[in-house]
Amino acid sequence: MVILYALTIILLFAVIGYLTSKPKHLTVRRGSNVTFTCSSDTHEVQWGFIPAYDSRAPRLIPAMDSQYDRHIYVDNNGTLYLYSVSEDDAGVYRCEDRDEAAFAELQVLGK
Questions:
Q1: Which of 41, 50, 99, 107 is deepest in the core (most CB within 10 A)?
Q2: Which tens digit of pLDDT belongs to each residue from 9-52?
Q3: What is the number of other CB atoms lying within 10 angstroms of the CB of residue 95?
């Protein structure tokens, strides 16, 4: 019975994933390029966005290796790239795997 219990605990730890890198808060000037890094040891990472101008409208940024729009891109490793940011990009970015989430705020200053 003790061996079965120990095996169950080991299997549970093998399934639970953790974020191995988390995004950091950033303040940048309008027109800058931004990179948020987030990765998990076991699961794919998903990104979400809560705009500063309307916190009631959270958005999911589509899956890996896809172009969200002209200036937002998520690569296979879970890194989020924003090109030539504007005030509309300011807000909270959420990175998550199946078991953990992390948040980073982006503030965009005028030129």
A1: 50
A2: 444 444 566 788 889 999 999 999 999 999 888 778 889 999 98
A3: 27
